[in-house]
Write a structure and sequence with these properties.
This protein is an alpha+beta fold. It has helices spanning 6-19, 37-43, 52-55, 57-61, 101-118, 134-140, 187-191, 208-214, 221-227, 236-239, 260-263, 267-271, 275-281, 292-298; strands at 24-29, 72-79, 91-92, 123-126, 145-146, 152-153, 161-168, 197-198, 201-202, 230-232. The structure holds cobalamin and iron/sulfur cluster (2 copies).
Length: 303
């Protein structure tokens, strides 16, 4: 739908996003051709046992199926911690050190949706929670480029951020994509412990993030051997990225920082936890979703 003053509507949502703690906002044309990248990726079996990805294919490729009349996709970034706060063995990916971002961002996205409703728009909002190609649209919205590690890289902020999306029926001014600045660097591909990265494509069946979070089957011995002491997720292809070095002055929501009791939770304590203790301990954390037995399976068995 055409807005009387699209620039004013975009500016209003930009101000509101900034006030809510989002670090950047960009707008992409919802009908941008996504090509066959995702379909090819699925056909080659890169999604391992994440069958839900096949079910989402049609909607992912056609945002009209997600929100009829959609014109723009607003993409947002929200910073998460830069350092691994664990003091004992067993690393937890930076994005999962604090509270569950799905819940943390949902209310903020609803607030932004209300701002857009004021201009006559209808919206649907997601953060890692819906059939939207978030990295693709973030790159189209000019927020950064897709690096060889498959992640959205920002020239000033690197890749340590969540992506969130708002599909809207409003036609807002679109932003311009930026060039890829990976250059001749291949550090992420070289550092990946399981060789999961190839030509900017991540094979989930090899990725330690998949095995420690999403997999429904036991970790195969070859993967286990490469896992080291990763307890939940993997940040290796981000840790080695030169764009993640310049991080001075980045403000992170305090709720995304690791609580003290997490940073010292030992393998032994984890293995002696009951379901009830686990649910209480991880009540606000995204880690709760995988359940106690999966987390225990990830950790080195207690002596
Ligand atoms: C499934 C999934 C996974 C799977 C598969 C990973 C993968 N690489 O696809 C697993 C469980 C392994 C995973 C792991 C991680 N994930 Co994940 N994941 C997703 C999810 C739900 C869908 C991704 C997907 O569809 N992948 C399939 C590929 C083919 O599609 P795609 O993402 O649209 O992007 C590709 C195309 O754009 C393509 N492309 C490149 N050039 C071109 C050119 C053209 C013309 C076209 C058409 C396409 C194209 O390249 C992109 C990357 O491969 C998204 C949320 C979402 N809804 O998008 C989060 C998401 C991508 N994950 C995220 C994160 C943080 C992670 C981890 C870092 C977590 C961790 N620390 O353990 C790791 C990183 C692993 C890695 N190197 O990719 C963030 C990324 C933030 C960022 N800065 O980019 C997202 C966006 C969630 C969020 N909302 O914040 N993830
Ligand atoms: S998250 Fe870890 S295993 Fe997955 S691609 Fe990156 S470095 Fe490789
Ligand atoms: S490590 Fe190098 S190749 Fe990989 S994403 Fe970062 S800049 Fe690109």
């Amino acid at each position: 739908m055409n807005v009387a003053d699209p620039a004013a509507a975009k500016q209003a949502v930009q101000y509101a996003a900034h006030a809510l703690g989002f670090s950047a906002l960009g707008v992409a044309d919802a009908h941008t051709d996504q090509g066959t990248y995702l379909a090819d990726w699925l056909r080659e079996g890169n999604h391992a046992d994440m069958q839900w990805m096949e079910r989402h294919l049609a909607a992912r490729q056609n945002p009209e199926l997600v929100l009829p009349g959609v014109r723009s996709i607003i993409m947002l970034t929200y910073e998460y911690p830069r350092t691994d706060a664990r003091k004992t063995s067993g690393s937890i990916a930076r994005y999962a050190q604090g509270e569950d971002y799905h819940k943390l961002l949902a209310g903020k996205l609803e607030d932004l949706s209300e701002t857009l409703s004021f201009y006559g728009g209808q919206q649907r909002c997601f953060t890692d929670s819906g059939p939207v190609s978030e990295r693709f649209f973030a790159a189209r919205a000019g927020l950064g480029w897709i690096g060889r590690n498959g992640l959205l890289i920002r020239p000033r902020g690197g890749s340590y951020c969540f992506l969130a999306s708002i599909l809207t029926t409003l036609e807002l001014p679109y932003d311009t994509p930026m060039p890829n600045r990976c250059g001749n660097c291949h550090r992420c591909e070289q550092a990946c412990p399981t060789a999961a990265l190839r030509n900017g494509c991540c094979n989930a069946g090899r990725c330690l993030s998949f095995w420690t979070i999403e997999a429904k089957t036991p970790i195969p011995p070859k993967i286990r051997a490469a896992m080291g002491s990763r307890l939940y997720g993997c940040d290796t292809c981000q840790e080695v990225c030169p764009w993640n070095r310049r991080q001075a002055g980045v403000e992170v929501d305090i709720r995304l920082l690791m609580p003290a009791e997490f940073s010292t939770l030992s393998d032994k304590a984890l293995h002696s936890m009951t379901e009830e203790q686990f649910n209480r301990f991880f009540a606000a954390s995204p880690i709760r979703r995988i359940g106690l037995s999966h987390l225990q399976h990830n950790s080195t068995p207690a002596e």
